[in-house]
Specification:
With about 300 residues, this protein is mainly alpha-helical. It has 11 helices and 4 strands.
Length: about 300
């Protein structure tokens, strides 16, 4: 995975979870507030709270446009009260820990809200003729799943299905989920019917679309390999001809002590946490590789 380098493990590993922890905390806070209002102030007050922050056709028609994002921080408080929120939080934790070091905190947050917005857009387009509402972080999780599948399609993941561990290749898992969501969307959402599981397939498909769009339009165009070269090169006719060939200078880790090395690595890790790997310069990539050898010496 992305944790195969020493500077993303051990004492440095916790840095990569900050954005994920913030989102998990926000989801947990929204869920707790829901429970308090529903249990202590009655069903009517609970429905009123959900109507203010949950996505619904009536709310959009009344100008509650903020709900295209806030619905992702509410969850079902019915009989399966814990299952909905726990599954979403578990998926966010697993996928977030893999994608956060690649995207960085800022882009991770932006992508999460982009996925929620796309989920709201497709749900609205599908349900414009009908009434209804949707809550839950599932569109954001669906977006993360597709993005991870695009970046690491051949990785294997193990899921517990009815408490039985089953291992999937990521790309096949994504195709399976996509097929199920498309069938649910066609046979339920388009017809204005409620899914057997109560899922809003159109919102999930919107989140999955966000994952694919981000990979194609942002990640594939901006990602650079660890040696500083872009994976997608500009066309030859667009490039300016070089007049002289330059030889890259030999690299040396010019830091006087282990403390200086650790301080420089901390600075670079903070930059990775904020902006992702693709924000690093070639020199910073070399510093990390050199620091790994220096720090491993006794």
């Amino acid at each position: 995975m992305f944790s195969d380098r020493s500077y993303m493990r051990d004492e440095y590993g916790g840095r990569a979870t900050s954005a994920v922890v913030w989102l998990l905390s926000a989801i947990a806070a929204g869920f707790i507030v829901q429970l308090v209002i529903h249990r202590w102030f009655g069903v009517a007050a609970g429905r009123g709270f959900d109507a203010v922050l949950g996505l619904s056709m009536d709310g959009l028609r009344n100008g509650q446009y903020w709900t295209v994002f806030t619905y992702g921080f509410l969850h079902d408080t019915g009989p399966l009260v814990l299952l909905h929120v726990l599954l979403n939080c578990l998926a966010l934790w697993v996928l977030g820990r893999e994608l956060l070091p690649v995207l960085g905190s800022k882009r991770f947050f932006l992508f999460w809200f982009f996925a929620l917005g796309m989920g709201a857009a497709l749900w609205t387009a599908t349900n414009w003729r009908f009434s209804g509402s949707v809550i839950g972080a599932s569109p954001g999780v669906a977006g993360l799943l597709v993005l991870y599948g695009c970046i690491q399609p051949n990785n294997r993941v193990t899921l517990l299905l009815l408490f039985v561990p089953v291992t999937f290749v990521v790309k096949y898992l994504v195709f399976t989920v996509l097929g199920a969501e498309l069938l649910g969307w066609f046979f339920f959402d388009v017809m204005g019917k409620t899914s057997v599981l109560g899922w809003e397939h159109s919102a999930h498909l919107g989140g999955m679309t966000a994952g694919w769009l981000y990979f194609r339009l942002v990640y594939s165009r901006e990602w650079k390999t660890l040696d500083g070269r872009a994976e997608m090169e500009l066309p030859k006719w667009f490039k300016r001809a070089k007049t002289t060939a330059t030889v890259p200078p030999a690299f040396k880790l010019n830091l006087s002590s282990r403390e200086d090395v650790k301080a420089e690595v901390d600075r670079i890790l903070d930059k990775i946490n904020s902006d992702g790997f693709n924000a690093l310069t070639p020199e910073e990539h070399r510093v990390l590789d050199g620091a790994r050898d220096v720090m491993s010496k006794p």
